[in-house]
Design brief:
- Residues 525-685 form the STAS domain.
- This is Sulfate transporter.
- Keywords: Cell membrane, Glycoprotein, Membrane, Phosphoprotein, Transmembrane, Transmembrane helix, Transport.
- The chain crosses the membrane at residues 54-78, 107-123, 174-196, 208-230, 250-274, 335-355, 376-398, 410-428, 472-501.
- By secondary structure, the chain is of the alpha/beta class.
- It is built from 27 helices and 11 strands.
- Strands 5, 6, 7, 8, 9, 10 and 11 form a 7-stranded mixed β-sheet that branches. A two-stranded antiparallel ribbon has the order 1-4. A two-stranded antiparallel sheet has the order 2-3.
- The two termini are 21 Å apart.
Length: 689
């Protein structure tokens, strides 16, 4: 039977572009309203907010997240190399902006350990290049936080040109200047990716790459916090191999460990881990998670204050955290140029984590999100707060899971969390002056439990897919031992290489017929398959393109036990010898046989098939090399009187074959070369004489 292809009307690409451009550039009141409603989704869902049904869950989850957010924000400031006040600003503004622009009801956007680490590495590098000392055990103080404020706690000053004026900038204000410039550029990248609809970039970050990246970065985070755990003073390592260098410095200075910090760290870790384990075990009985971090911080602060641990035992403390807001300031363009490259991986990682978590929540609770709008939301969660001394944000898995488990219904819970942070910013921040840094380090390390538990999943991961496990291991080691940015790049490149290698050497098979059916399967994988007399059926499970052409031919020749080129060469060789003997008039040929017997010996062995069927069901596309390869085997086997039939080709492959001239100029022999099923091709081969 013959299936007729539909005739598709070809539309000029130029016409399509002009139509889209005309539609995009037109402006009507209705279109303007739709644009505003789409850009600020809060205008769509807030008027439909069911207060009686949603408010209790939103308030409860908002309060719980706010209580968790405050200690985490203060702790993650260590990772970013900034003062705690900036982490609180970040958490406040991110929640407010995502409330206005986000499409996910359950995602918790704010400060995230991985993003904080990436920001901190850039800040540390730029501080070193500017000549600052990375030792953070310096007299504490914030001043007014302004970039024009001179440094009274670091002897080095850095000259900046701001609006044509020279201003001196100390270590702290230069650090937040770098962070805000980095955040602004990352946000701009994310908005541009949203405008040009480049969300597909996230597809190249597979689950194995992301998990390996997160685990490797977690090892780096853990390593960076060890010095706070044991209270030693070592320089913050920078560059490649930071993890190894830091551990060497730790062991060299282990004798200087502060006993007070060691004891405090041990107690805090035991309390936090025990609480987390009990919370995980009895989470179905608890209405909301235990606020262990907040309890630990309050108790530790009280003990440190009244026990005078800083004065008596020289335990490092958080220092002054001022109240209120610092006046907004435009990020410096000169600094943006310095960090433009670093902002790209930061933008991609931030976006990917946010969208993946948004999609996970949307799927679980049966609603839809707009990935492009999520890119705009997280982009503006970076751009706008960068004017208010904040740094990069992203969705965080742990807080998102807590949010969903405590009854969150809509984005209103984010506003409640922001109000909790605002309360701390306005009134409670100075109370954390005596909080030990080792306590903050404990909170960070315990929060890494989920990522570090991935090591336990390696055997199961290996059992499911060996290649994905190798990708995870390579990404994890590269992220931990080289740097987070290079580790991410290595993971992406390596995973893509794995895909290329798998298409270069795919599975190939000869098929046999399932008895009394019209179906065919791999002869090596299934029992009781019968071979078709005089017919070989070859399956190639990958696209056929330039990179796997040679493998295709080698596999075909090996499985059919016939190389047509060698066979043709042997025939020519025997024919040549035969002619030479005949010219000499010798009735005995080169084989030592008579002339009559020689004819039977022109082919060294008998060919056991007369038709080759290529199962193209797994060939998704052909390039020029692929088409030429099929034309080559068609010609070579035809010289041996073996017909080549193609079966189960998709329309894309058929079109490529037509354009490549596989069926001839008028496609007259197409019906004798192309079949819709393997069984049709087998029946045709059997009917051939």
């Amino acid at each position: 039977f013959v299936i007729e292809r539909k005739t598709h009307v070809k539309i000029s690409a130029k016409e399509v572009m002009l139509a889209k451009l005309k539609k995009s550039c037109s402006c009507t009141p209705k279109k303007l309203k739709n644009f505003v409603m789409e850009f600020l989704p809060v205008l769509q869902w807030l008027p439909k907010y069911q207060c009686k049904e949603y408010i209790w869950g939103d308030v409860m989850s908002g309060l719980v997240i706010g209580i968790i957010l405050v200690p985490q924000a203060i702790a993650y400031s260590l990772l970013a190399g900034l003062k705690p006040i900036y982490s609180l600003y970040t958490s406040f503004f991110a929640n407010i902006i995502y409330f206005l622009m986000g499409t996910s009801r359950h995602v918790s956007v704010g400060i995230f350990s991985l993003i904080s680490l990436m920001v901190g590495q850039v800040v540390d590098r730029e501080l070193l290049l500017a000549g600052f000392d990375l030792n953070d055990d310096v007299p504490t103080g914030l001043g007014d936080g302004s970039l024009q404020n001179g440094s009274h706690f670091n002897t080095t000053a850095f000259n900046l040109t701001i609006a044509g004026m020279n201003a001196e900038c100390g270590k702290e204000c230069y650090a937040i200047g770098i962070a805000t410039a980095l955040t602004f550029v990352a946000g701009v990248y994310q908005v541009l990716m949203g405008i040009f609809r480049l969300g597909f970039v996230s597809m190249y970050l597979s689950e194995s790459v992301l998990d390996g990246f997160a685990t490797g970065a977690s090892l780096t985070i853990l390593t960076a916090q060890v010095k706070y755990l044991i209270g030693i003073k070592i320089p913050r390592s920078q560059g490649h191999g930071m993890l190894v260098i830091t551990w060497i410095n730790i062991f060299r200075n282990i004798s200087q460990a502060n006993l007070c910090d060691v004891i405090t760290s041990a107690i805090c870790i035991v309390v936090l881990v025990t609480s987390k384990e009990l919370g995980d075990r009895y989470k179905h009985k608890l209405k909301f998670p235990l606020p262990t971090e907040l309890v630990v911080i309050v108790v530790a602060t009280l003990v440190s204050h009244y026990g005078k641990l800083n004065e008596v035992y020289a335990s490092s403390v958080s220092g002054t955290i001022p109240t209120g807001f610092i006046p907004p300031k435009v990020p410096h363009f000169n600094l943006m140029v310095r960090v433009a490259v670093d902002a790209l991986p930061l933008a991609i990682v931030s976006f990917v984590f946010t969208v993946s978590l948004s999609e996970m929540c949307a799927k679980k609770y049966a609603y839809t999100i707009r990935a492009n709008q999520e890119m705009f939301a997280v982009g503006f969660c970076n751009i706008i707060p960068s004017f208010f001394h904040s740094f990069a944000t992203s969705a965080a898995l742990a807080k998102t899971l807590v949010k969903t488990s405590t009854g969150c219904q809509t984005q209103v819970s984010g506003v409640i969390s922001a109000m909790v942070v605002l309360l701390v910013l306005l009134f409670l921040a100075p109370l954390f002056y005596s909080l030990q840094k080792c306590v903050l380090a404990c909170i960070i390390i315990v929060s890494l439990r989920g990522a570090l538990r991935k090591f336990k999943d390696v055997p199961a991961r290996y059992h499911v897919n060996k290649v994905d496990t190798v990708v995870w291991v390579v990404t994890m080691f590269a992220s931990a031992l080289i740097s987070t940015e290079i580790g991410l790049l290595v993971g992406i490149v390596f995973s893509m290489l794995c895909i290329i290698v798998r298409t270069q050497r795919p599975r190939t098979a000869l098929l046999g017929q399932i008895q009394d059916t019209s179906f065919y399967e791999d002869d090596l994988e299934y029992e009781n398959l019968s071979s078709v007399p005089k017919v070989k059926i070859f399956r190639f499970e990958a696209p056929l393109y330039y990179a796997n052409r040679n493998y295709f031919l080698k596999s075909l020749y090996r499985l059919t036990n016939l190389d047509p080129n060698l066979e043709a060469a042997k025939r020519k060789k025997y024919e040549k010898k035969e002619k030479q003997q005949l010219k000499k008039g010798d009735q005995t040929t080169a084989n030592g046989l008579g002339i009559g017997e020689t004819t039977l010996q022109l082919v060294p062995r008998q060919i056991d098939f007369q038709a080759l069927i290529v199962d193209c069901s797994s060939i998704s596309f052909l390039d020029t090399t692929g088409v030429n390869t099929l034309k080559e085997i068609l010609k070579d086997y035809k010289d041996l009187n073996i017909s080549v039939l193609l079966a189960c080709c998709n329309p894309s492959v058929i079109d490529s074959l037509k354009r490549g001239g596989y069926f001839g100029r008028d496609f007259g022999s197409m019906q004798e070369m192309l079949f819709y099923s393997i069984h049709n091709a087998v029946q045709f081969a059997k009917d051939q004489k």
